[in-house]
Specification:
3 domains; 12 strands; single chain; 438 residues; Helix Hairpins
Length: 438
């Protein structure tokens, strides 16, 4: 059954169950019939035997179907004075010979004999009025045996018809069950081959409807991801191409003595650093999304990390004339996390705040019972409402021409550690809110 389809397996198993059920019914029917035949024969012979051996014969009941004849102790039937037909006389002699061959002597045992394809139950007893004779009591159950055979034939035919009908019905039912699975399998295969069209089939079972809807949603998401990926790579290629073009142009200008060596080295260094940062961010984001990040979890005071990052960017703050404010608890705010990942999160958020802030940036840390909340606010322009849902998307580009890879990394890190990030923006300020679960 290893290589069978689900439909064939289901049909095979249910057919075996159905056939086994019919077999059990047939065996049970024959057992009941055999028991009934034997019981009726025994009752008839016992009643006849009681009539013959009892002193009070008037109180006994004699079954009409019970027959008897006498024979000598050397198994010779006695037909003298008996009004029997030649057939009966022949039957008595055959029964007597059968008893002789099997060396049967008088006893309470009731024997089953088959004579000329007829079924008899026989009991041999001593004749109470003549010690030199035995009495043979017998009852024919041929009619019941024939009835059983006819009923067996009818039952067999009915069962065969029902089995064939059952197999056909099971086949069609299993087909109706497996056809949707086959269709969905073909749909999944087509999606795997690059086709991005929704499945047009309609299903009526709840489980299949849910699976169908999920697969169509998957196709829709794949389409969006592919479109976003194309958009992302267009932007990334542009961001990579721009510093490369600047470097090549600067080298060409230096080659023809249009610029000085110092100016050329400065431009190449700046643009090389820009390339390095972008490539590093792409690699980090790729590892985060693949859940392939080497981390060293340690207890960190979040306040110290924020102050250290802010100090490292004081030159940028001074160049733009920005004021940095801190609203921290007086006690340490400890969180277990990889310090490099946390540093990356805060660095990207601060870089983003410096880029858009007009005059000040505010860090706020709130130590709740169940989580730690970190907020960074700037007084820059309000983020458009329709852009809030896309701001953490790594494929989106801000209105100042910067690819949103930094905020995408922040979101990926937060999700990796079971936290989340939100943004709240109004005309007065824009706040990014980080929530770390303790």
């Amino acid at each position: 059954m290893k290589n069978m389809t689900f439909k064939v397996k289901l049909t095979f198993v249910l057919s075996i169950v159905l056939a086994s059920t019919f077999l059990i019914i047939g065996i049970s029917f024959n057992s009941i019939m055999n028991t009934s035949i034997l019981r009726n024969a025994r009752e008839a012979i016992v009643d006849s035997r009681n009539v013959i051996t009892s002193s009070n014969r008037m109180n006994q009941r004699l079954f009409v179907s019970t027959q008897n004849f006498t024979m000598s102790t050397d198994y010779v039937s006695n037909e003298a004075g008996m009004m029997h037909s030649p057939h009966m006389m022949m039957l008595h002699r055959v029964i007597a010979n059968t008893l002789k061959e099997n060396e049967i002597i008088p006893s309470p045992d009731i024997l089953e004999l088959r004579v000329s394809n007829e079924l008899f139950y026989v009991n041999l007893i001593e004749n109470p009025t003549n010690q030199s004779q035995w009495i043979v009591l017998y009852v024919s159950m041929t009619s019941l045996e024939n009835l059983k055979a006819n009923l067996n034939l009818i039952l067999f035919v009915i069962m065969m018809i029902m089995l064939m009908v059952g197999i056909i019905l099971i086949w069609f039912v299993s087909s109706s069950m497996t056809l949707p699975l086959t269709q969905l399998s073909a749909f999944a295969t087509s999606v795997g081959h690059g086709h991005r069209q929704s499945d047009p089939h309609v299903y009526h079972e709840k489980e299949l409807i849910d699976l169908h809807d999920s697969m169509n949603t998957m196709v829709s998401n794949l389409l969006e991801q592919e479109q976003a990926s194309r958009y992302f790579f267009q932007n990334v290629s542009h961001e990579l191409r721009t510093p490369l073009q600047i470097i090549l142009a600067q080298l060409e200008a230096y080659q023809y003595d249009f610029v000085s060596k110092e100016n050329t080295l400065s431009v190449i260094t700046n643009q090389g650093e820009r390339l390095k940062l972008l490539i590093d961010d792409l690699l980090v984001l790729s590892r985060l999304e693949a859940h392939n990040v080497d981390v060293m979890v340690e207890s960190i005071d979040i306040r110290d990390v924020i102050e250290e990052i802010s100090s490292s960017m004081h030159v940028l703050l001074e160049d733009k004339g920005l004021e940095m404010k801190y609203q921290f608890p007086n006690h340490p705010v400890i969180f277990k996390m990889d310090e490099s990942s946390l540093t990356k999160v805060f660095s990207n958020l601060l870089t983003n705040a410096i880029r858009y802030s007009k005059s000040k940036i505010i860090w706020e840390v709130i130590d709740h019972k169940d989580n730690i909340e970190v907020k960074i606010s700037n007084d820059g322009e309000m983020i458009p409402e329709d852009f809030k849902g896309k701001i953490f998307d790594r494929f989106e580009k801000g209105d100042r021409g910067h690819i949103g890879i930094g905020l995408a990394i922040v979101k990926a890190v937060m999700e990796h550690y079971g936290g989340n990030i939100e943004v709240d923006s109004n005309p007065e300020k824009t706040t990014f809110i980080l929530k770390f679960k303790k």
